[in-house]
Structure formats: structure tokens, C-alpha cells
Amino acid sequence: MFIKRNMRIMVLLALFTLLFGSSVLADDGRINRAPYHFGGDTLFCSKDKGCTLLDKDGHELATWSESDILAAFASENTSKQNTQVAGEGQGTYGAVQLWSVGGNAENGNDKLCMMGFDEWGKQNSMCFEVTKDFHFEQAPLPMSEVDHSCDRWSLGDWVELISDTSKYGEIRSINRDNSTVVFGKRSGIVAKCSEIEPGPR
Questions:
Q1: What are the beta bridge partners of residue 42?
Q2: Which distant-in-sequence residues (6+ apart) come within 8 Å of 6 by Cβ?
């Protein structure tokens, strides 16, 4: 009875954490979320500030101003050629670029794509829309891709959250159906496999 009740509480806490975490991501200007992974670097965009790339500790790595983004949109719209937003950033694991690419013909939104690298030297990219009133949409999750981010993890591996290295521990379970792991002490931390990296013992 005691074990059943504790399991129910743990499941409810895990679901609450996932739901709460998702709602926070939707409102803070963050563009990339799993599976878009740039070694812990996160792109934030807003109408007033343009786009800023932060590392996993919140340090600024690169910025692209609103005026430079608008200039790239104007150039791409005129030339019909993908246009790099002025300036190349330096992410934690390599060069990062923003590009204006063909917009969405249905709604008239412009589109930006970010290209960068993760901690394994793999080049990653994501694209997202920018509305005519300069609202930055979160990068949509790919529909057809199979998430293989759990393939590199095994039970007993020690990992930490990329976004918060104070949260670490041993992997206790892996759910490949929803690409999550539970790690840490008895209560466990639930995270997407793409949101963790090797951590201290």
C-alpha cells in the first residue's frame, strides 16, 4: 500500500514537472528546445532585443540586433536567396550563424534558421518563424524524426542537466518511448535524454 501510494505520487510529480517545464519554455523567449541541441546553448529572441545566444550558465555568447535581422529579411525577400544575418557568433562548441530563408507563403511570416554545433562536434540546425509584428515563434518540433537521443545512455550512467549542472546523478530508468530518463536520488529527476550530458560521480 505504502509503495503504491509513493509510486502514484512520483508519477504525478513527474507529470507536473514535465507540464510545468513546458509552459515555462513557451513564455520566456526561448527558441530551441529538445531535440534542437547546441551543447547547452540556448537562443532567446524578442522584438526589442533581437536574438541572443546564452550558454548553459546564462553567459551571453552572441547577439543579432533587430535591425540586422530586418536587413537580412529585406535582402532575402528582394534577392530570393538565403541571407546570413550580419555577424557570426561563437557558441560554446563552435561557430553559430543566423540565416534568413524563404518565408511562409501561407501566412507571410519570415523565417530564420540557426546553425551551430553540439558538444560532440555535430552540426545542428533549426528554423523558426518571425511574424510581421516581429514576434519570434518557438522552433516547431519535427514530426517525422525518430528521437535517438537515448541511444547513448545506459542504466547506471552518471549524468547532469545541461541547463542546470547542480542537478546530477545516476540514471535509474530510461523510457525510450518518450525519450526520457529518471536520474538522481530516490525521488529522481525526469528529463529528456537530449537535455542531459555526462556528469560527476
A1: 54
A2: none
Nearest CA among 179, 184, 183 for reference residue 194 = 179
Name the pTM for this structure: 0.58
Q: What is the distance, to the nearest Å, from the Cα of residue 47 to the centroid of all Cα atoms in its chain?
A: 20
Place of cell 530551441: 32
Residue 51's pLDDT band, with cuts at 50, 70 and 90, is very high
| Domain co-membership, 39 together with 124 | yes
Would you put residue 156 in left (φ > 0), alpha (ψ -120 to 50) or beta? left
Query: What is the rounded average pLDDT of the residues 75-93?
Result: 91
Strand partners, 60: 54
Residue holding cell 511574424? 131
Same structural domain for residues 153 and 125? no
Considering the domain architecture, whether residues 153 and 180 belong to the same structural domain is answered as: yes
pLDDT for 7: 46
d(CA 97, CA 111): 14
C-alpha cell at 1: 500500500
The answer to whether 28 and 43 have CB atoms below 8 angstroms apart is: no
